[in-house]
Amino acid sequence: MRCSVRCGAVLPRSFYARPAIEVAKDLLGKILVHGETAGRIVETEAYLGLADAAAHASRGRTPRTEVLFGPPGHAYVYLIYGLYECLNLVAEPEHSPGCVLIRALEPLAGIETMRRRRGGITRIEQLANGPGKLTRAMGITRRQNGADVTRGSLTVHVPERAEAFQTGVSRRIGITRNPDPPLRFFIQDNSCVSRMPRSLSSPPAR
DNA sequence: CAATAGATCATCT
DNA sequence: GATGATCTATTGC
To answer: What share of chain A is helix, strand, coil (3-state, %, to 5)?
Structure first.
């Protein structure tokens, strides 16, 4: 029993073989599936590669960044702060190391499994509303580094019924280098987005 | 509600 | 040896 969620075709490699910014925007609303768990992607960030000082690949090809320089449509999973794993999807053609960080999901399937992995968090919006949280909730680790996301147990699908939404934009979160361009994209007003920037969150109309 | 300390380790200098 | 594309708990207002 795989993909117990209503989801359609797997995104083909050609989807990923485009500029990281386009891929980041277009991944919003798509369905990430890993084993019995699945979630709707509601927040992403683009990392542009060599010209992007905040990107791991900006300092060139190293053992860790090897997969970023490979073909698109593969997972790049790394350990951050010694504690959490972050999931990226490799974009752009081979040898161009752009990628997209998956920052938040709206849980759709395997909710009880996610709750167990997340140490008893009960509220659905808090199960996967951050890059370290969603990997833990879905059981994604560095074992999936380099995995082909166009086939296998970790895949991204088109939803069977697309829901309309507005795309919000902001600067990336947790980037200390300045200035940082607006490369974070999220589904406007979705409760599973990790943090609504003050500049964009509408004040309570009154 | 906002700010911050602490956890913890692979990676690169 | 310093540094993070983070998260949680705790403290302070």
So the answer is: 20, 30, 50
